[in-house]
Amino acid sequence: MRLIKLTMLLSLIGLVISFFQRDHLSTNISFDERLKEEPHQYRTLEEPFSVLINARDYFIEPLYDYTLYGMVVSLKQHNSDTGLHKTWNDHLNVADLCVVWSDTAFSPHLNKVEFWNGQFTCFFQTNDRQAWESFNGTQLSNNHLITDNEYLRDKIKKINIGDQIKIKGWLANYQGSNGNKRGTSIVRTDTGNGACETIYVNDVQILTSYISHWRIAMYVNFCIFVLSLYSYFKAPIRNY
Known about the structure:
By secondary structure, this protein is of the alpha+beta class. It contains 6 helices and 10 strands, in the order αβββαβαββαβαβββα. Helix 1 packs antiparallel against helix 6 (213-234). It is globular, with a radius of gyration of 22 Å.
């Protein structure tokens, strides 16, 4: 019984530690060569159109054909039942993905940069001088992903930090039937409010799923904890 209790305690500690470290990026990531490319952007001939989702109409104005290869460093899945998305009745914005590519993605110091997403923005910081000097802010974008296609919406929700992805669609402005509008950046050199890319997604692919030692440790510790907990309650009661 003491061994079971000790196993439970150690696995629980390991589970908590690995959970908070699960998205930490490794220094030896194997990259898809396509991540070296800058985003592909061309004027589109696509006409504006409307879509219907959750009984709401949205007017989409495509501006550019857009293809992005990158690695996700931070993300925020959106729930249209909470926050500003609820206030705006925005059911179209599935998620925000903060993505890096080219030299910034391939930098050996990238794991020393901290990334996080706010409601609609991506932030980053580091105290490491080499990491800062090797970081190129024009090789990072925060992408508002919009689509009414349920299959694509489900695929977007399966994306995790560290995954290498391909997104293809249109840089687009859109407006809900309640009059709320959201635009898009059309360059990678802007910052601040309005600097995010809004992409109407026509295709999304996970090129490589990120599997870290911390994530493996998290699942292993979880299994050990559950098994030890089961063993604890199934063990015979001893009277002394």
